[in-house]
């Protein structure tokens, strides 16, 4: 699991297996992964399902995810707290392509050092 160094830039969720669609995109990496925290730069969007049947798909902007001001985690937390009684489920969607690209880049960098 990749961890972000700054606690304020991590979206927390309960530990659970990854969505099958994510696993299908890169099975050799994601097959046995359980997440309890998602670094914000790798978070694509948040799907919020309300008890009344409404669904909100909140796509996160790169500028907000990469900002150091802490507004995004704070705004998400405040939103979840404000609507806690009405929310049935929250699904954090990963930017798998960005994650895959960064993992490959880091792996290649480590392997080059070992030569």
Can you summarize this structure?
With 115 residues, the chain is an alpha+beta fold. Helix content is 40%, strand content 30%.
Structure description:
- The chain is α+β, with helices and mostly antiparallel strands and 115 residues long.
- The chain has one domain.
- The protein has 5 helices and 5 strands; from the N terminus they run βααβββααβα.
- β3 and β4 form a beta hairpin.
- The two termini are 25 Å apart.
Seen as an oligomer or otherwise, the chain set is: single chain
Q: What is the 3D form?
A: globular
What is the rounded distance between the termini?
Answer: 25 Å
Order of strands across the biggest sheet? 4-3-5
Q: In this structure, how is the largest beta sheet organized?
A: 3 strands, antiparallel
Q: Could you estimate the helical fraction of the residues in percent?
A: 40-55%
Tally of distinct domains: 1
H/E topology pattern: EHHEEEHHEH
Poorly predicted runs are 1-13
Report the β-strand fraction as a percent range: 25-35%
Mean pLDDT: 76
Report the strand count.
5
How does the helix and strand content classify structurally?
alpha+beta
Radius of gyration: 16 Å
Put simply, the count of helices is 5
